[in-house]
Amino acid sequence: MTAETHKKPGLETLQAAINRLEGHSDRRRTVLPFGVCEIDSRLPGGGLALGALHEVAGGGNDALHSAAAGQFCAGIAARTPGKVLWIVTRQDVFAPSLKQVGLSARRTIFVEACSDVDVLACFEEGLRHGGLGAVVAEVARLSMTASRRLQLAAETSGSLGIAIRRWRRQTDAADFGQPTASVTRWRVSVLPSVSLPVPGVGRPRWLLELIRARAGECADFEVEACDGKGRLAPGRLSLPAALADGSDQEAAGQRRASA
């Protein structure tokens, strides 16, 4: 047996220790595909990593309200199995908007915390529990130390962790540029809806910015907002099924004729 053979186990042990400290895991992660090839092709494994921490923030004025960012996260959580823990510091979550993208109130456990410190504590406990499909938490500040703890907790249980970065002042949003241990970092901005060929309101559209992806590629995507099952669609005109077969168009024409 050579000296090199003796050294190899020691090197492997050291590398494993470094991986643990950096928030990496040796076990193979499963992923949750978006079902949009343009997005999945930019993510390692072809989807959003489960058993990992992800960050999402709103773009522009939505950095304060996180309406679109919250719906984006709810659509992701809706496609995971089991209950979803949603942690907030402000009582302004509009449950019908979450249901609109597939996340029903029956699946969601809402927890109100008094401060970011309490949010992070509940966030970590929820991820370590292991019996939840996803844990979503609204938090303003997220340090490297706190994010590493959350990442390790997610890796241990296999649960999906999503930190919605939400601030009370626009100037505080600069904190989003600080490094964290999250696997991906997203920004969601609202785009104008595409006009429909019939009277009505078009499906909301978003600009998704994949700002950071560990072992992946950064990119921007124009998409249609999540549908009733939490699924995104590429940024093109999409009609409801009832309109696609022409039945509602005919009915609309009859109403206009009789008006």
Automatic annotation (TrEMBL):
The lineage of its organism: Bacteria, Pseudomonadati, Pseudomonadota, Alphaproteobacteria, Acetobacterales. Gene3D superfamilies: P-loop containing nucleotide triphosphate hydrolases (3.40.50.300). It comes from the Bacteria. SUPFAM superfamilies: P-loop containing nucleoside triphosphate hydrolases. This is Damage-inducible protein.
